[in-house]
Amino acid sequence: MISYLSSEEIIEINKLVLEETNESHKFILEQPDDLQFILKFVADNFVKNLYKKSLAYCISLIVLHPFKNGNHRTSLIAAERFLLKNNFRDFSSDEGDLILQKWRIDYEQKHDLEREFFRITCVEDTKERIKETIKIMNSEYGKHIEKWLKNNFSKT
Known about the structure:
This protein is mainly alpha-helical and about 160 residues long. Helix content is about 70%, strand content about 5%. It is built from 8 helices and 2 strands; from the N terminus they run H-H-H-H-E-H-H-H-H-E. The chain has helices spanning about 5-20, 30-45, 50-65, 70-85, 95-110, 115-120, 125-135, 140-150; strands at about 90, 155. It has a two-stranded antiparallel sheet with strand order 1-2. Helix 1 crosses helix 4 (about 70-85), helix 2 (about 30-45) runs antiparallel to helix 3 and helix 3 crosses helix 8 (about 140-150). The protein is globular and about 40 Å long.
């Protein structure tokens, strides 16, 4: 049986991320409906492929941006936490996490993904939003993050 993250767990991750950077006063869940969409999107898709489900948490949290601050950091930690909840072993390091985070930011800026993410956030049709999020997951960007997850987490 697959153990999913709850909205409370994702909110707690975001709060912890903001606390670590002394930004706890900036916690705001701006889009609670988007957070619910993310939970349903992950649960309803990718059958039993836990790496894809993990990537789905990561990409959808970035794309839909439910929090005012800390979405990128929250996204990777949520992906990792999901794998840990499902008995994966963590071989990652803080240094490796930082390298991936820097790569993501650089890649997003170079390829103007912020504009693309904002466009997807504005999509109201659920089927279209799912399609667009999966498109990002299957892009070079998503494949790089998925490869990182596979290289740093394995089933126990």
